[in-house]
Design goal:
Blueprint (H helix, E strand, L loop, with lengths): L1 E6 L3 H12 L4 E7 L2 H11 L3 E4 L8 H11 L4 E6 L4 H9 L4 E4 L5 H11 L4 E2 L1 H10 L6 H9 L6 H8 L3 H15 L4 H11 L3
Parallel strand pairs: 1-2, 1-3, 3-4, 4-5, 5-6
Helix pairs in contact: 2-3, 4-6, 7-9, 8-9, 9-10
Keywords: DNA-binding, Phosphoprotein
Organism: Actinomadura verrucosospora
GO molecular function, one term: DNA binding
């Protein structure tokens, strides 16, 4: 049996995935989580072969949780299953050690086959997204520029961002200015929107 864990914050989607996978003779759902931190704890406890991991979840997103899950359950393979098929997300998922990246609107029957392929050592990536990621190029933002954009996404002042990130106001201005220029935006709000659309944040 292939032991599968589900990490998905939408209960209905998680239930549907569990029901779908339970129809397969060789797949067993051994754990479920609704957030990133919970996913790490459940993976450590259940030691699944595969974790189906959503990206956007409360308390910690799937891309941040992925390496922690792999550390908590060595040998476990990570499959990102998301609504958000953004090129930047694919790159970040691969950097986090994911073995698969699939969008939720793909055919249901392909999911079980993808799980088996991943357990066999293959990488499974949505073909359209792979092509988009190659044409989009790498994330142009440095980690600190991403931090500054994220911290200012809610309209916070430079002083607020500086306090949150423990940086000087001048440093924050420099990071934001660099980020705005790199994504070709006119202002911070537009830069946040563009970076999120590409999956860079």
């Amino acid at each position: 049996m292939i032991r599968v864990m589900l990490a998905e914050d939408q209960r209905m989607v998680r239930g549907a995935l569990a029901a779908l996978l339970s129809l397969e003779d060789d797949l067993e759902v051994v754990g479920e989580a609704s957030g990133g931190a919970e996913a790490v704890a459940v993976a450590a406890r259940t030691r699944p072969d595969v974790v189906l991991l959503d990206i956007e979840m409360p308390d910690r997103d799937g891309l941040d949780a992925a390496p922690e899950i792999r550390a908590a359950a060595p040998g476990c393979r990570i499959m990102i299953l998301t609504t958000f098929g953004r090129p930047g997300y694919l790159r970040r998922a691969m950097e986090a050690g994911a073995s698969a990246f699939l969008v939720k609107d793909g055919p249901a029957q392909e999911l079980a086959a993808a799980i088996r392929r991943v357990v066999a050592g293959e990488r499974v990536i949505d073909p359209a997204l792979a092509a988009a990621a190659l044409s989009a190029g790498p994330n142009p933002l440095s980690p600190r520029e991403r931090d500054a954009l994220e911290a200012g996404a809610d309209g916070s002042t430079i002083a607020d961002i500086a306090g949150r990130l423990h940086l000087s106001e001048g440093t924050v201005r420099n990071y934001l200015s660099a980020a705005i220029n790199k994504v070709g935006a006119r202002n911070r709000i537009e830069a946040v929107h563009t970076a999120r659309a590409q999956g860079w944040l």
